[in-house]
UniProtKB/TrEMBL annotation:
Gene Ontology molecular function, alphabetical: hydrolase activity
Keywords carried by this UniProt record: Hydrolase
Domain SGNH hydrolase-type esterase: 10-219
Presence of keyword Transmembrane: no
Top-rank taxon: Eukaryota
Protein source organism: Aspergillus pseudoustus
Name under which the protein is recorded: SGNH hydrolase-type esterase domain-containing protein
Gene3D superfamilies: SGNH hydrolase
InterPro entries, alphabetized: Iah1-like (IPR045136), SGNH_hydro (IPR013830), SGNH_hydro_sf (IPR036514)
Amino acid sequence: MAQPYDQFILFGDSLTQMSSSQEDGFGYQPALQDAYGRRLDVINRGFSGYTTANALKVLPKFFPSPRTATVRFLAIFLGCNDACDPGMSQHVRLDTFKHNLKRIIQHPAVQAHDPRIFLITPPPVNEYQLEAFDASEGVSHPSRTAARTRKYAEVALEVGSELDVPVVDLWSAFMHSVGWRRQQQGDHPLIGSRDLPNLAEFAALFTDGLHPTGKGYRIQYDAVMKTIRRTWPDQAPERLDMVFEDWRVAPV
């Protein structure tokens, strides 16, 4: 009887869909697949443009039955589209976004596997790059702001706390990489907003102010692996056996 690999499902929007490309020599999904090679199948279920509302509708259509596969990990990486300007069709209100994340985590199709679930917060955005990107897309006003995106990242952290689900704080990881610190709160302008000069080091993390470059995806990969090692140390790649034996001990 066939012995399938357990699955590590990456569920998200275009930030997940596009993570299979190795821009700047690094791709998030390929890095995970390399780390878990011969141990888990890393499955990309990224849907460009999707919000948590869209994700809820598509989830039962692709999520495998326990009869056909075992999902060991589920990474939920949504919110950058929900955080669009309220005047845009993709916008999802904060309270609805929070409710949708909980419904995804608690969905019967997911819970049937009892997988190791973790959330990834939306990363920050760079309004300077977004302005040029939005103009090229025919959008006359900014589609996203640094301040609003931060709120969606904070809500993802709240969901994790309330449901006892680990959260990869990608928003903070990006910001910390360019010198931002948590004490810079309140009315302090955010890196990436037009209230501060455009920071080249920050812009280097994005292709268009929203989607990560290889540098950005490397930050994401490192943060995800840190969370796995801290939360489930027995699931670190080096702690898992290969599904099929090494050639030196495999039967002839």
